[in-house]
Amino acid sequence: MKTGPNAPRRLSIFGSTGSIGVNTLDVVTQLGGREAFEVVAISGNANVALLAEQAKACGAELAVTADEASYGALKDALSGTGIEVAAGREALIEAGARDADVVMAAIVGTAGLEPTLAAARRGADIALANKECLVSAGELFVKAVAEGGGQLIPVDSEHSAIFQSLEDGQHHAIERIVLTASGGPFRTWTREQMAGVTADVARAHPNWSMGLKISIGSASMFNKALEMIEAKHLFNLRPDQVEVIVHPQSVIHSMVGYVDGSVLAQLGCPDMRTAIGYALTYPNRSKLDVERLDFAKLARLDFEAPDEVRFPALRLARTALERGGLQGAVMNAAEEIAFHAFCDGRIGFLEMADIAERVMDDMTGYKAAATMEDVFAADGEARRRAGEIIAQKEMAA
Ligand SMILES: NC(=O)c1ccc[n+]([C@@H]2O[C@H](COP(=O)([O-])OP(=O)(O)OC[C@H]3O[C@@H](n4cnc5c(N)ncnc54)[C@H](OP(=O)(O)O)[C@@H]3O)[C@@H](O)[C@H]2O)c1
Protein backbone atom coordinates (compact mmCIF):
# COMPACT_ATOMS: atom_id res chain seq x y z
CA MET A 1 0.00 0.00 0.00
CA LYS A 2 1.47 3.38 -1.07
CA THR A 3 1.18 6.30 1.34
CA GLY A 4 1.66 10.07 0.97
CA PRO A 5 -0.37 12.87 -0.63
CA ASN A 6 -0.30 11.35 -4.14
CA ALA A 7 -1.04 7.80 -3.03
CA PRO A 8 -4.07 6.21 -4.68
CA ARG A 9 -7.30 6.46 -2.68
CA ARG A 10 -8.44 3.14 -1.30
CA LEU A 11 -11.91 2.46 -2.67
CA SER A 12 -14.56 -0.20 -2.09
CA ILE A 13 -17.59 -0.56 -4.38
CA PHE A 14 -20.65 -2.28 -2.97
CA GLY A 15 -23.00 -3.26 -5.79
CA SER A 16 -20.24 -3.11 -8.42
CA THR A 17 -22.23 -5.32 -10.82
CA GLY A 18 -25.20 -2.94 -10.93
CA SER A 19 -25.85 0.18 -12.97
CA ILE A 20 -24.12 2.55 -10.52
CA GLY A 21 -21.34 0.02 -9.87
CA VAL A 22 -20.50 -0.40 -13.56
CA ASN A 23 -20.53 3.39 -14.03
CA THR A 24 -18.28 3.75 -10.98
CA LEU A 25 -15.69 1.41 -12.46
CA ASP A 26 -15.84 3.39 -15.71
CA VAL A 27 -15.22 6.62 -13.77
CA VAL A 28 -12.34 4.96 -11.90
CA THR A 29 -10.76 4.10 -15.24
CA GLN A 30 -11.30 7.64 -16.53
CA LEU A 31 -9.76 9.13 -13.40
CA GLY A 32 -6.54 7.13 -13.77
CA GLY A 33 -7.36 3.54 -12.83
CA ARG A 34 -4.84 1.96 -10.45
CA GLU A 35 -2.76 5.17 -10.35
CA ALA A 36 -5.74 6.92 -8.75
CA PHE A 37 -7.59 4.16 -6.88
CA GLU A 38 -6.59 0.97 -5.11
CA VAL A 39 -9.71 -1.17 -5.07
CA VAL A 40 -10.13 -2.81 -1.67
CA ALA A 41 -13.40 -4.71 -2.11
CA ILE A 42 -16.14 -5.06 -4.70
CA SER A 43 -19.46 -6.84 -4.26
CA GLY A 44 -22.36 -8.26 -6.25
CA ASN A 45 -25.16 -10.70 -5.77
CA ALA A 46 -26.34 -12.91 -8.66
CA ASN A 47 -24.00 -11.78 -11.43
CA VAL A 48 -20.90 -13.74 -10.43
CA ALA A 49 -19.37 -13.79 -13.92
CA LEU A 50 -19.33 -9.98 -14.11
CA LEU A 51 -18.09 -9.68 -10.52
CA ALA A 52 -15.13 -11.95 -11.27
CA GLU A 53 -14.34 -10.10 -14.49
CA GLN A 54 -14.47 -6.74 -12.67
CA ALA A 55 -12.28 -7.99 -9.81
CA LYS A 56 -9.58 -9.07 -12.26
CA ALA A 57 -9.81 -5.89 -14.32
CA CYS A 58 -9.53 -3.47 -11.39
CA GLY A 59 -7.22 -5.64 -9.26
CA ALA A 60 -9.58 -5.78 -6.28
CA GLU A 61 -8.16 -7.29 -3.10
CA LEU A 62 -11.51 -8.92 -2.23
CA ALA A 63 -14.64 -9.91 -4.18
CA VAL A 64 -17.80 -10.68 -2.23
CA THR A 65 -21.06 -12.13 -3.45
CA ALA A 66 -24.04 -11.60 -1.16
CA ASP A 67 -25.43 -14.89 -2.43
CA GLU A 68 -23.87 -17.73 -0.39
CA ALA A 69 -24.85 -20.28 -3.03
CA SER A 70 -22.61 -18.47 -5.54
CA TYR A 71 -19.45 -18.80 -3.42
CA GLY A 72 -18.11 -21.85 -5.33
CA ALA A 73 -18.68 -20.27 -8.74
CA LEU A 74 -16.92 -17.06 -7.69
CA LYS A 75 -14.03 -18.99 -6.15
CA ASP A 76 -13.59 -21.03 -9.34
CA ALA A 77 -13.75 -17.92 -11.52
CA LEU A 78 -11.03 -16.21 -9.46
CA SER A 79 -8.81 -19.18 -8.72
CA GLY A 80 -5.13 -18.48 -9.26
CA THR A 81 -5.60 -14.69 -9.24
CA GLY A 82 -4.74 -14.11 -5.58
CA ILE A 83 -8.02 -12.20 -5.15
CA GLU A 84 -9.72 -13.08 -1.88
CA VAL A 85 -13.27 -14.43 -2.22
CA ALA A 86 -16.12 -14.34 0.28
CA ALA A 87 -19.90 -14.78 0.33
CA GLY A 88 -22.93 -13.93 2.43
CA ARG A 89 -24.28 -11.14 4.59
CA GLU A 90 -21.58 -11.33 7.29
CA ALA A 91 -18.85 -11.27 4.65
CA LEU A 92 -20.36 -8.10 3.16
CA ILE A 93 -20.40 -6.41 6.56
CA GLU A 94 -16.79 -7.48 7.17
CA ALA A 95 -15.84 -6.08 3.75
CA GLY A 96 -17.53 -2.80 4.71
CA ALA A 97 -15.29 -2.58 7.75
CA ARG A 98 -12.05 -2.91 5.70
CA ASP A 99 -9.73 0.06 5.49
CA ALA A 100 -11.06 1.92 2.47
CA ASP A 101 -10.79 5.72 2.29
CA VAL A 102 -14.01 5.94 0.31
CA VAL A 103 -16.86 3.50 -0.16
CA MET A 104 -19.35 3.59 -3.04
CA ALA A 105 -22.62 2.38 -1.51
CA ALA A 106 -24.50 1.10 -4.58
CA ILE A 107 -26.31 -2.04 -3.43
CA VAL A 108 -30.00 -1.80 -4.21
CA GLY A 109 -32.49 -1.79 -1.33
CA THR A 110 -32.19 -2.23 2.40
CA ALA A 111 -29.58 -4.96 1.83
CA GLY A 112 -27.12 -2.08 1.44
CA LEU A 113 -27.64 -0.72 4.94
CA GLU A 114 -25.44 -3.02 7.04
CA PRO A 115 -22.26 -2.97 4.90
CA THR A 116 -22.55 0.80 4.44
CA LEU A 117 -23.05 1.27 8.16
CA ALA A 118 -19.94 -0.84 8.85
CA ALA A 119 -17.95 1.40 6.49
CA ALA A 120 -19.36 4.56 8.07
CA ARG A 121 -18.52 3.38 11.60
CA ARG A 122 -14.95 2.62 10.52
CA GLY A 123 -14.57 6.18 9.24
CA ALA A 124 -14.66 5.84 5.46
CA ASP A 125 -16.08 8.63 3.30
CA ILE A 126 -19.40 7.36 2.01
CA ALA A 127 -20.37 8.02 -1.61
CA LEU A 128 -24.05 7.28 -1.12
CA ALA A 129 -26.13 5.95 -4.00
CA ASN A 130 -28.13 3.60 -1.76
CA LYS A 131 -30.83 6.03 -0.60
CA GLU A 132 -32.42 3.30 1.53
CA CYS A 133 -29.69 3.87 4.18
CA LEU A 134 -31.10 7.34 4.87
CA VAL A 135 -34.76 6.52 4.26
CA SER A 136 -34.68 3.66 6.77
CA ALA A 137 -32.12 4.72 9.33
CA GLY A 138 -32.25 8.54 8.95
CA GLU A 139 -30.54 10.35 11.80
CA LEU A 140 -28.91 7.14 13.08
CA PHE A 141 -27.10 6.71 9.78
CA VAL A 142 -26.04 10.37 9.61
CA LYS A 143 -24.78 10.09 13.20
CA ALA A 144 -22.81 6.92 12.42
CA VAL A 145 -21.00 8.68 9.57
CA ALA A 146 -20.27 11.73 11.74
CA GLU A 147 -19.02 9.62 14.66
CA GLY A 148 -16.84 7.57 12.32
CA GLY A 149 -15.26 10.81 11.09
CA GLY A 150 -15.94 10.34 7.37
CA GLN A 151 -17.94 12.51 5.01
CA LEU A 152 -21.30 11.69 3.49
CA ILE A 153 -21.33 12.62 -0.20
CA PRO A 154 -24.53 11.98 -2.14
CA VAL A 155 -24.46 10.21 -5.49
CA ASP A 156 -28.18 10.35 -6.29
CA SER A 157 -28.15 13.01 -9.04
CA GLU A 158 -30.76 15.17 -7.28
CA HIS A 159 -28.92 15.16 -3.97
CA SER A 160 -25.57 15.64 -5.65
CA ALA A 161 -27.11 18.70 -7.36
CA ILE A 162 -28.30 20.09 -4.04
CA PHE A 163 -24.95 19.31 -2.39
CA GLN A 164 -23.21 21.19 -5.22
CA SER A 165 -25.67 24.12 -5.00
CA LEU A 166 -25.18 24.61 -1.27
CA GLU A 167 -23.12 27.65 -0.49
CA ASP A 168 -20.53 27.13 2.22
CA GLY A 169 -21.78 28.31 5.62
CA GLN A 170 -25.21 29.35 4.28
CA HIS A 171 -27.25 26.37 5.48
CA HIS A 172 -29.26 28.70 7.75
CA ALA A 173 -30.31 30.68 4.64
CA ILE A 174 -31.89 27.72 2.84
CA GLU A 175 -35.60 28.30 2.37
CA ARG A 176 -36.38 25.15 0.40
CA ILE A 177 -34.89 22.53 -1.82
CA VAL A 178 -36.57 21.57 -5.08
CA LEU A 179 -36.11 17.99 -6.26
CA THR A 180 -36.68 17.61 -9.98
CA ALA A 181 -38.48 14.54 -11.32
CA SER A 182 -38.64 13.47 -14.96
CA GLY A 183 -42.16 12.17 -14.37
CA GLY A 184 -41.11 8.76 -15.73
CA PRO A 185 -42.74 6.88 -18.61
CA PHE A 186 -46.30 7.45 -17.29
CA ARG A 187 -46.05 11.21 -16.75
CA THR A 188 -49.10 11.90 -18.92
CA TRP A 189 -50.96 8.64 -18.33
CA THR A 190 -54.27 8.26 -16.48
CA ARG A 191 -54.60 5.88 -13.53
CA GLU A 192 -56.78 3.65 -15.70
CA GLN A 193 -53.97 3.37 -18.25
CA MET A 194 -51.39 2.64 -15.54
CA ALA A 195 -53.52 -0.04 -13.84
CA GLY A 196 -52.68 -2.82 -16.30
CA VAL A 197 -48.98 -2.19 -17.05
CA THR A 198 -46.34 -4.89 -16.63
CA ALA A 199 -42.84 -4.47 -15.17
CA ASP A 200 -41.35 -4.56 -18.68
CA VAL A 201 -43.39 -1.53 -19.69
CA ALA A 202 -42.84 0.31 -16.41
CA ARG A 203 -39.05 -0.08 -16.48
CA ALA A 204 -38.57 1.92 -19.71
CA HIS A 205 -37.33 5.26 -18.41
CA PRO A 206 -37.44 8.16 -20.91
CA ASN A 207 -34.08 9.76 -19.94
CA TRP A 208 -31.94 7.66 -17.57
CA SER A 209 -30.50 4.16 -17.92
CA MET A 210 -30.73 2.56 -14.45
CA GLY A 211 -31.32 -0.66 -12.50
CA LEU A 212 -34.76 -2.33 -12.38
CA LYS A 213 -35.85 -1.13 -8.91
CA ILE A 214 -35.12 2.55 -9.50
CA SER A 215 -36.60 2.42 -13.02
CA ILE A 216 -39.91 1.02 -11.73
CA GLY A 217 -39.66 3.51 -8.84
CA SER A 218 -39.37 6.33 -11.37
CA ALA A 219 -42.53 5.15 -13.10
CA SER A 220 -44.51 4.98 -9.82
CA MET A 221 -42.64 8.01 -8.40
CA PHE A 222 -41.74 5.90 -5.36
CA ASN A 223 -38.15 6.70 -6.19
CA LYS A 224 -38.93 10.42 -5.79
CA ALA A 225 -40.76 9.60 -2.55
CA LEU A 226 -37.63 7.90 -1.21
CA GLU A 227 -35.55 10.86 -2.40
CA MET A 228 -37.75 13.32 -0.46
CA ILE A 229 -37.00 11.46 2.76
CA GLU A 230 -33.34 11.05 1.80
CA ALA A 231 -33.07 14.83 1.26
CA LYS A 232 -34.66 15.64 4.60
CA HIS A 233 -32.04 13.61 6.47
CA LEU A 234 -29.08 14.47 4.27
CA PHE A 235 -29.59 18.23 4.49
CA ASN A 236 -31.32 18.38 7.89
CA LEU A 237 -34.49 20.04 6.58
CA ARG A 238 -38.04 20.44 7.86
CA PRO A 239 -40.63 18.48 5.85
CA ASP A 240 -42.14 21.70 4.44
CA GLN A 241 -38.74 22.65 2.95
CA VAL A 242 -38.75 19.64 0.59
CA GLU A 243 -40.48 20.32 -2.75
CA VAL A 244 -40.82 18.30 -5.95
CA ILE A 245 -41.26 19.67 -9.47
CA VAL A 246 -41.71 17.61 -12.62
CA HIS A 247 -39.10 18.55 -15.22
CA PRO A 248 -39.34 16.14 -18.16
CA GLN A 249 -35.93 16.93 -19.72
CA SER A 250 -33.94 15.89 -16.57
CA VAL A 251 -31.40 18.64 -17.26
CA ILE A 252 -31.77 20.55 -14.00
CA HIS A 253 -30.90 17.86 -11.49
CA SER A 254 -32.28 19.80 -8.50
CA MET A 255 -32.15 23.25 -6.88
CA VAL A 256 -31.72 25.12 -3.62
CA GLY A 257 -33.90 28.16 -2.91
CA TYR A 258 -32.44 30.71 -0.47
CA VAL A 259 -34.19 33.24 1.80
CA ASP A 260 -33.21 36.13 -0.51
CA GLY A 261 -35.15 34.63 -3.41
CA SER A 262 -32.09 33.23 -5.22
CA VAL A 263 -32.30 29.72 -6.60
CA LEU A 264 -29.08 27.82 -7.33
CA ALA A 265 -29.26 24.78 -9.56
CA GLN A 266 -26.91 22.15 -10.96
CA LEU A 267 -27.42 21.15 -14.59
CA GLY A 268 -25.99 18.45 -16.79
CA CYS A 269 -26.84 15.69 -19.23
CA PRO A 270 -28.56 12.73 -17.59
CA ASP A 271 -25.43 10.66 -16.93
CA MET A 272 -24.72 9.32 -13.44
CA ARG A 273 -20.97 9.41 -14.06
CA THR A 274 -20.88 13.15 -13.30
CA ALA A 275 -22.34 12.67 -9.82
CA ILE A 276 -20.18 9.56 -9.25
CA GLY A 277 -17.00 11.38 -10.30
CA TYR A 278 -17.86 14.33 -8.08
CA ALA A 279 -18.39 12.02 -5.08
CA LEU A 280 -15.10 10.19 -5.68
CA THR A 281 -13.01 13.34 -6.11
CA TYR A 282 -14.85 15.75 -3.74
CA PRO A 283 -14.01 18.55 -2.99
CA ASN A 284 -12.16 18.61 -6.33
CA ARG A 285 -13.46 18.16 -9.86
CA SER A 286 -11.73 16.07 -12.51
CA LYS A 287 -12.20 15.85 -16.26
CA LEU A 288 -14.75 13.26 -17.35
CA ASP A 289 -15.65 12.08 -20.80
CA VAL A 290 -19.42 12.60 -20.59
CA GLU A 291 -21.74 14.38 -22.99
CA ARG A 292 -21.81 18.19 -22.57
CA LEU A 293 -25.06 20.16 -22.48
CA ASP A 294 -25.80 21.90 -25.75
CA PHE A 295 -28.17 24.72 -24.75
CA ALA A 296 -29.00 25.73 -28.33
CA LYS A 297 -30.11 22.17 -29.12
CA LEU A 298 -31.96 21.92 -25.83
CA ALA A 299 -33.90 25.16 -26.55
CA ARG A 300 -36.37 24.83 -23.66
CA LEU A 301 -36.83 23.53 -20.15
CA ASP A 302 -40.34 22.55 -18.99
CA PHE A 303 -41.83 22.29 -15.52
CA GLU A 304 -45.12 20.85 -14.19
CA ALA A 305 -46.60 20.54 -10.74
CA PRO A 306 -46.51 16.89 -9.56
CA ASP A 307 -49.84 15.06 -9.43
CA GLU A 308 -50.23 13.31 -6.08
CA VAL A 309 -53.49 11.68 -7.13
CA ARG A 310 -52.03 9.81 -10.10
CA PHE A 311 -48.75 9.31 -8.19
CA PRO A 312 -49.76 8.71 -4.54
CA ALA A 313 -46.17 7.76 -3.57
CA LEU A 314 -45.43 11.49 -3.28
CA ARG A 315 -48.30 11.94 -0.83
CA LEU A 316 -47.06 8.94 1.16
CA ALA A 317 -43.57 10.44 1.41
CA ARG A 318 -45.07 13.70 2.68
CA THR A 319 -47.07 11.69 5.25
CA ALA A 320 -43.93 9.80 6.30
CA LEU A 321 -42.03 13.07 6.69
CA GLU A 322 -44.80 14.64 8.75
CA ARG A 323 -45.33 11.60 10.97
CA GLY A 324 -41.58 11.10 11.43
CA GLY A 325 -40.44 8.22 13.64
CA LEU A 326 -39.96 5.02 11.70
CA GLN A 327 -42.44 5.77 8.92
CA GLY A 328 -39.64 6.13 6.35
CA ALA A 329 -38.31 2.66 7.20
CA VAL A 330 -41.85 1.27 7.10
CA MET A 331 -42.70 2.88 3.75
CA ASN A 332 -39.42 1.72 2.23
CA ALA A 333 -39.75 -1.90 3.44
CA ALA A 334 -43.42 -2.24 2.42
CA GLU A 335 -42.66 -0.74 -0.99
CA GLU A 336 -39.71 -3.12 -1.51
CA ILE A 337 -41.98 -6.13 -0.92
CA ALA A 338 -44.71 -4.65 -3.12
CA PHE A 339 -42.13 -3.92 -5.86
CA HIS A 340 -41.04 -7.59 -5.95
CA ALA A 341 -44.68 -8.74 -6.01
CA PHE A 342 -45.38 -6.37 -8.93
CA CYS A 343 -42.32 -7.65 -10.84
CA ASP A 344 -43.50 -11.23 -10.24
CA GLY A 345 -46.93 -10.34 -11.67
CA ARG A 346 -48.66 -10.97 -8.32
CA ILE A 347 -50.10 -7.45 -7.94
CA GLY A 348 -50.88 -4.55 -10.26
CA PHE A 349 -48.84 -1.37 -10.67
CA LEU A 350 -51.23 0.83 -8.66
CA GLU A 351 -51.43 -1.67 -5.80
CA MET A 352 -47.82 -0.94 -4.78
CA ALA A 353 -48.88 2.40 -3.28
CA ASP A 354 -52.04 0.92 -1.69
CA ILE A 355 -49.95 -1.70 0.11
CA ALA A 356 -47.35 0.79 1.32
CA GLU A 357 -50.11 3.10 2.59
CA ARG A 358 -51.94 0.34 4.47
CA VAL A 359 -48.74 -0.81 6.19
CA MET A 360 -47.77 2.78 7.06
CA ASP A 361 -51.23 3.44 8.55
CA ASP A 362 -51.01 0.19 10.56
CA MET A 363 -47.59 1.06 11.96
CA THR A 364 -47.91 4.65 13.15
CA GLY A 365 -47.06 3.47 16.69
CA TYR A 366 -43.39 2.91 15.81
CA LYS A 367 -41.68 5.97 17.28
CA ALA A 368 -38.24 7.33 16.37
CA ALA A 369 -35.50 4.69 16.44
CA ALA A 370 -33.08 4.79 19.36
CA THR A 371 -30.90 2.03 17.90
CA MET A 372 -30.38 0.24 14.61
CA GLU A 373 -32.19 -2.77 16.11
CA ASP A 374 -35.36 -0.61 16.23
CA VAL A 375 -34.90 0.12 12.52
CA PHE A 376 -34.44 -3.56 11.64
CA ALA A 377 -37.47 -4.53 13.78
CA ALA A 378 -39.75 -2.00 12.04
CA ASP A 379 -38.35 -2.98 8.64
CA GLY A 380 -39.00 -6.68 9.33
CA GLU A 381 -42.52 -6.08 10.63
CA ALA A 382 -43.41 -3.87 7.63
CA ARG A 383 -42.18 -6.59 5.26
CA ARG A 384 -44.26 -9.20 7.10
CA ARG A 385 -47.41 -7.06 6.98
CA ALA A 386 -46.92 -6.16 3.31
CA GLY A 387 -46.48 -9.88 2.52
CA GLU A 388 -49.71 -10.68 4.37
CA ILE A 389 -51.68 -8.04 2.44
CA ILE A 390 -50.32 -9.35 -0.87
CA ALA A 391 -51.28 -12.93 0.07
CA GLN A 392 -54.80 -11.77 1.04
CA LYS A 393 -55.16 -9.94 -2.28
CA GLU A 394 -54.12 -13.08 -4.15
CA MET A 395 -56.63 -15.21 -2.21
CA ALA A 396 -59.38 -12.70 -3.00
CA ALA A 397 -58.54 -12.53 -6.73
N1 LIG B 1 -28.94 3.53 -11.38
C1 LIG B 1 -28.97 4.80 -11.15
O1 LIG B 1 -28.83 5.61 -12.08
C2 LIG B 1 -29.17 5.33 -9.75
C3 LIG B 1 -29.26 6.71 -9.57
C4 LIG B 1 -29.37 7.20 -8.28
C5 LIG B 1 -29.43 6.34 -7.19
N2 LIG B 1 -29.37 5.00 -7.41
C6 LIG B 1 -29.46 4.11 -6.25
O2 LIG B 1 -28.30 3.27 -6.24
C7 LIG B 1 -28.64 1.98 -5.73
C8 LIG B 1 -28.25 0.95 -6.80
O3 LIG B 1 -29.05 1.19 -7.95
P1 LIG B 1 -28.74 0.49 -9.35
O4 LIG B 1 -29.68 1.11 -10.32
O5 LIG B 1 -27.28 0.51 -9.62
O6 LIG B 1 -29.22 -0.99 -9.04
P2 LIG B 1 -28.93 -2.34 -9.86
O7 LIG B 1 -28.46 -2.04 -11.22
O8 LIG B 1 -30.12 -3.21 -9.69
O9 LIG B 1 -27.68 -2.96 -9.05
C9 LIG B 1 -27.83 -3.37 -7.73
C10 LIG B 1 -26.56 -3.93 -7.16
O10 LIG B 1 -26.86 -4.50 -5.88
C11 LIG B 1 -26.55 -5.92 -5.91
N3 LIG B 1 -27.55 -6.61 -5.10
C12 LIG B 1 -28.82 -6.93 -5.44
N4 LIG B 1 -29.44 -7.55 -4.41
C13 LIG B 1 -28.53 -7.62 -3.40
C14 LIG B 1 -28.56 -8.16 -2.09
N5 LIG B 1 -29.65 -8.76 -1.59
N6 LIG B 1 -27.44 -8.07 -1.32
C15 LIG B 1 -26.33 -7.47 -1.81
N7 LIG B 1 -26.23 -6.96 -3.05
C16 LIG B 1 -27.33 -7.03 -3.84
C17 LIG B 1 -26.61 -6.31 -7.38
O11 LIG B 1 -25.87 -7.50 -7.62
P3 LIG B 1 -26.13 -8.44 -8.93
O12 LIG B 1 -26.34 -7.51 -10.09
O13 LIG B 1 -24.84 -9.20 -9.04
O14 LIG B 1 -27.30 -9.29 -8.65
C18 LIG B 1 -25.97 -5.08 -8.01
O15 LIG B 1 -24.58 -5.10 -7.83
C19 LIG B 1 -30.14 2.03 -5.43
O16 LIG B 1 -30.33 2.33 -4.08
C20 LIG B 1 -30.66 3.16 -6.30
O17 LIG B 1 -31.82 3.78 -5.78
C21 LIG B 1 -29.24 4.48 -8.66
Keywords:
Rossmann fold; Rna Polymerase Sigma Factor, Chain: A; seven-stranded parallel beta sheet; four-stranded mixed beta sheet; 17 helices; 3 domains; binds NADP nicotinamide-adenine-dinucleotide phosphate; single chain; 397 residues; alpha/beta
What does this structure look like?
The protein is an alpha/beta fold and 397 residues long. The chain has three domains: 9-154, 3-Layer(aba) Sandwich (Rossmann fold); 157-269 and 291-309, no CATH class; 324-397, Rna Polymerase Sigma Factor, Chain: A. The chain has 17 helices and eleven strands. It has helices at 19-30, 48-58, 71-77, 89-96, 113-122, 132-148, 157-165, 191-195, 199-202, 212-220, 222-235, 272-281, 295-298, 312-323, 327-343, 351-362, 372-396, and strands at residues 9-14, 37-44, 62-65, 84-87, 102-105, 125-128, 152-154, 174-181, 242-246, 252-258, 263-267. It has a seven-stranded parallel beta sheet, with helices on both faces. Strands 9-8-10-11 form a four-stranded mixed beta sheet, covered by helices on one side. Strand 6 (125-128), helix 6 and strand 7 form a beta-alpha-beta unit. The longest helix has 25 residues, at 372-396. It is globular, with a radius of gyration of 21 Å. The N and C termini lie far apart (60 Å). The relative contact order is 0.11. NADP nicotinamide-adenine-dinucleotide phosphate binds at residues 15-21, 44-47, 66, 106-108, 111, 129-132, 156, 208, 210-214, 272.
